Amino acid sequence: MSTQKSTxxxxxxxxxxxxxxxxxxxxxxxxxxxxxxxxxxxxxxxxAITMAYLVAAxxxxxxxxxxxxxxxxxxxxxxxxxxxxxxxxxxxxxxxGIGTWLALILKVAFxxxxxxxxxxxxxxxxxxxxxxxxxxxxxxxxxLLGAKTSGxxxxxxVVVLLLILIGFIGTGVPEIHLSHFSGYFDSGxxxxxxxxxxxxxxxxxxxxxxxxxxxVENPERNLPLGIFLALGTAILIYGIxxxxxxxxxxxxxxSGDLSxxxxxxxxxxGKVGIxxxxxxxxxxxxxxxxxxxxxxxxxxxxxxxxxxxxxxxxKLGKNGMPFNAIIVTVGSIVLxxxxxxxxxxxxxxxAFQLLMLMFVCIAVIVMRESKIDSYDPGxxxxxxxxxxxxxxxxSLWLLSYMGVWTKVFTVVMFVIGIIWYKYYVRNKVGRSxxxxxxxxxxxxxxxxxxxxxxxxxxxxxxxxKDDPFDQLVARSHVIDISSGIGFEEIVERVSTLFSQFVxxxxxxxxxxxxxxxxxxxxxxxxxxxxxxxxxDGLRQMEMVMVRSKSGVHLKFNNPATDKEEEQTLHAIFFLxxxxxxxxxxxxxxxxxxxxxxxxxxxxxxxxxxxxxxxRETILHNERFHSVYIHKNTPTEQMIGKPLSAINMPQGxxxxxxxxxxETIIPRGSTIIQENDRITVIGEPSSMKExxxxxxx
Length: 696
Fold this sequence. Notes:
Blueprint: H1 18-27, H2 32-35, H3 37-45, H4 49-57, H5 60-73, H6 80-88, H7 90-119, H8 128-144, H9 147-172, H10 189-199, H11 205-208, H12 219-248, H13 251-254, H14 260-269, H15 271-305, H16 323-339, H17 342-348, H18 350-369, H19 386-399, H20 404-425, H21 435-439, H22 448-460, H23 469-474, E1 477-481, H24 487-499, H25 506-518, E2 524-525, E3 528-529, E4 532-535, E5 542-558, E6 563-578, H26 582-596, H27 601-607, H28 611-617, E7 624-628, E8 652-659, E9 662-664, E10 677-682, H29 684-694
Parallel strand pairs: 1-5, 3-6, 4-6
Antiparallel strand pairs: 2-3, 5-6, 7-10, 8-9, 8-10
Helix pairs in contact: 1-9, 1-12, 3-10, 4-10, 4-12, 5-12, 5-18, 5-19, 6-7, 6-18, 7-8, 7-15, 7-16, 7-17, 7-18, 7-20, 8-15, 8-16, 9-12, 9-15, 14-15, 15-16, 18-19, 18-20, 22-26, 24-25
């Protein structure tokens, strides 16, 4: 039995914008992979390290596409954990959550220790561990101040870092000696592939920003753009940057060099060059540590929300940050710095992260094949399913070239996750993943809770540009009923009305609306109900809005509790959509639900004086204006003109005209008259322009 409660934990504040996402994704990538590993890689591959870095990026490309798709569909804290849990169930979610959290804090600890190589160029005997601990604690405090604050610092770090790296590459390219690339493939394909497996960890930080997706403003836009820009930046800098290292200094000098960037800069600019790139290295390592701490702390938070870790990790501080999760994450980093040799352990953690990204590719296949209507990513991975299959095969191919200890670490992580699941999670969680929706075809059970959860996520999202919600509301039918009419009679009237202009029979409409509401398929809450269905052959969405001031009594089954409940309804929205666009249907339902949950909705709904005002209560405040046409006002210029001749902001239109007791759906030839009340809909920017033109 599940012990989950119906109350939802508080969500993290959305404060990260596009450049924050880019800075966090980029900052977790350009550190040890650029400033330390090229010299080590050169020992195995010689000049072909440039090829090894490019090959290492191949498995990451499909994984990145998949991470972005899942993040835009399910923007929740926890990233990989959340995606694996919701797609393949809590067992794999537990393994992925615990293992990825540990891999992230190992990477943070390694980044802090990695600074020592460049600091040692100037202060050879400085104890690096105490300095690393001090920086870890400082970054922990910074994270407690809020994602917006730590995101701003991340932007500063990354901007300065990129400027220095651009200067390094720009001045280094003219100094390249092509003779240094002779014997490019002498090391053989095996050495290149094994080296690619080693340097793969350089890139994986890009995907860690997914664990912060809950805090991203407009995630459907900012996550894809930010992550793809970061991936492109990383590939360019690694590809060209390693070519500069190979081309500027002899291979015998590069091979085994732990500070190759400083060596190259010193050969071109002398001491000044070494100082500048060493400063860049310190920024890179601190940037990785900051972004890694942010990302890692969201895993205990997300897992505790799902009762897979103690509830103390759900606590949010006064700045809205997961206080205990950050404290435990930073504390774990400090312990690792004190007790372990991170330079050895972090390398073996790369296999586990690669395996998790392989499962992410599988997760996209599971989510799509589950056919859950509410799975509605704002970005869809191209070339499905071949992109995902390539991601799985490329990951397995690269895993085969990794060392024995990396595979042992992966097995250990799986064992730890399985033990935690068996003795802590299994009896607390009654949830299963989307994979059960696929198994339903084979006679297995289907988990409906995931569909409800995804619908809840949709309510938090904005409509997309091609969603005709405002137009749907503007041409909707309105029924204002008197007292003494029951819900069954309302369904009869609405079904009769719909059957006159939609390709569906009265009997089918009645059955779908009435039975769907009574058995609990229809959302019922806050004195409202949303009966809905999809109709084959319907060309566009249709809606009927019903108001009852006195209220309509309804008994229905609550699917969340599986018990019969009663409500008095004052607002009922009947929605029909075409069969071929189920996700848009769910988005429209989510938008209606979002509007009716506004604390002022029901008051406005009940006092609305006419059909036009009823429609306006369900529209976005920022997407419509309702104005009266009077002389001696800016609207006077509209009087006597057809709509087609009136100057309107681009992207806006007059959707309704109220003339006396009549509501008019206007056309281009409709003449505007004095005392008309017009409702204008459009994008927020268009509405601001309309306000300047006719209201201000």
